[in-house]
Amino acid sequence: MQRFSKEEIAKFRTMLFERREILAGNVSRMSDSALSNNHDSGNGFNHMADMGTDNYDQEFTIGRIENEEDELRAIDEAIQKLDAGTYGACESCSQPIPKTRLRALPFVSLCVRCKELEEKSA
Ligand SMILES: [Zn+2]
Q1: pLDDT in tens, 77-116
Q2: Between these two residues, 37 and 62, which has the higher pLDDT value?
Q3: How far is the CA of 10 from the centre of ligand 1 (A)?
Q4: What's the CA gap between 105 and 23, in Å, rounded?
Q5: All residues with CB under 5 Å from ion ligand 1
Q6: Cα–Cα nearest to 107, from 4, 16, 14
Q7: What's the CA-to-centroid distance between 36 and ligand 1, angstroms?
Q8: DSSP states of 65-86 as a string?
Q9: Cβ atoms of residues 64 and 33 within 8 Å
Q10: Region of residue 86 (left: phi > 0; alpha: psi -120 to 50; beta: else)
């Protein structure tokens, strides 16, 4: 099990919450513009949608929402693990995830090796 100081846990928690807020803001904004059929509110998105790229833009935007929702879920799980004291352990092999990796991507649940294996098998 990975051991963190209180300061480190507080820092990861802040990073996760900040990231979460950014993503949550993006997701609701994109949902508004992609899923609403009201093209009359006069902003730039709707102007582009009126130029015949409607379906393409909509699919593209919804694809991005899925990714961000995945990341939001991962962030929520990471926050729960911080609370439970299990944060920083690889979900697949239970080895500690290097802190340098967690600082770059605080929501990851797999170490680099397991992540690569997962991507190869996907
Ligand atoms: Zn692993």
Answers
A1: 999 999 999 999 999 999 999 999 999 999 999 999 999 9
A2: 62
A3: 24
A4: 14
A5: 90, 92-93, 111, 114
A6: 16
A7: 41
A8: HHHHHHHHHHHHHHHHHHHHT-
A9: no
A10: alpha
The structure tokens 């593209």 sit at: 60
Q: Kindly give the residue spans of alpha helices, DSSP state H, lying in 1-122.
A: 6-35, 44-48, 54-84, 99-104, 112-121
Tokens of 81: 């693990």
pLDDT of residue 18 exceeding 80, the answer is yes
Query: Under DSSP, is residue 96 helix (H, G, I), strand (E, B) or coil?
Result: strand
Tokens 């352990």 belong to which residue? 89
Residue 22 amino acid letter: I
Q: How far is the CA of 23 from the centre of ligand 1 (A)?
A: 26
